[in-house]
Amino acid sequence: MERKRIIVGVAGGIAAYKAASVVRQLTEAGHSVRVVPTESALRFVGAATFEALSGHPVHTGVFEDVHEVPHVRIGQTADLVVVAPATADLLARAAVGRADDLLTATLLTARCPVLYAPAMHTEMWLHPATSENVATLRKRGAIVMEPASGRLTGADTGPGRLPEAEEISTLAQLLLARADALPYDLAGVKVLVTAGGTREPIDPVRFIGNRSSGKQGYAVARVMAQRGADVTLIAGNTAGLVDPAGVHVAHVGSAAQLRDAVSKHAPDANVLVMAAAVADFRPANPATNKIKKGPTEEGDPTIELIRNDDVLAGAVRARTDGQLPNMQAIVGFAAETGDANGDVLFHARAKLKRKGCDLLVVNAVGENRAFEVDHNDGWLLSADGTETALEHGSKTVIASRIVDAIAAFLHSGGG
Ligand SMILES: Cc1cc2nc3c(=O)[nH]c(=O)nc-3n(C[C@H](O)[C@H](O)[C@H](O)COP(=O)(O)O)c2cc1C
Question: Quick one: 129 and 251 in the same domain?
């Protein structure tokens, strides 16, 4: 991606030190980053930290370098503004359009996407004043992330934690690639996403797994949540991914556990996205004790495999049987390779028909493709016969295109 101009606004919350990581990640991605803190922010982290990390001077007021008119120039020339952390006070000042420091003046002059990552105590976040300020900012097109839940300052826990720096910079990069990627258009939609690979126990120590990293499913859950959906993520084994902020995450191990979790949550859901790599087979008789290597004369052990339930097909069947009255869209994923019978798309079309889902995301797998990597490409097949290419891009960009297709499907009346 070409070098873009990013402004990182930092407000005065306890999480201000985490802004240093956001700045670091964005500069390492090759962008020019300028930090604009509030006066309060500099009581938490010194200007020297931000100046050294960004390579630019740091000011809080509008009366420094006046000849360069920074109170308008910084916002006008930005490609993206990220405010992390956004305090309750900063959100309030932005919502009423104040311009009493350099950051708020920048927010008024910026015409690029603006991403706020709020962080505050749960009481402040849930206060109607803050909710209304957030709603106002979203109505005007700003992207206000859902805060993460967890440990806050002191012993308190609840929603209000700053999302992880990695999550903020991932969404920032998405907005640089696609300025219109995060409309707030899925409020009230309940989404169930599965991601990652399952692990089928052989004995208490060993398992049969697969190479799914969970990155694509996590990216779909993250984009859905930032577009306002109420997202539950059922996560199998993943490559140590950060749980997306504002998403309810349930961790599972085996295909049977994943199936049970889907059965539990699907009746509430309007959308099911089956991005998990669910094992087709499992050991028929997992040993309760570790299988011992034993002497060579005892020969090699064999593992008998039996078929797992097909979770996607099961969900489609349950909907047909009237057990999922709220379900409007069922989305499958297919990791395919071509063979003597046909290419990737040939097999994918057959799978879409066989499974009966509404949309199928298709990835060609093979060496260094689809699994464990950060980029992806493929096709999006729809039950109505539409086939759209998903151009090569980060898994977050691909996720945003998949979510666009789901949103369009829901908008058109769904399944
Ligand atoms: C130790 C400490 C931690 C604070 N943490 C937060 C916080 O996480 N979120 C928040 O909204 N305000 C927090 N505040 C209150 C803000 O610093 C205060 O509202 C300030 O006016 C914010 O100014 P700013 O929005 O211009 O940066 C904290 C204050 C103190 C003293």
Answer: no
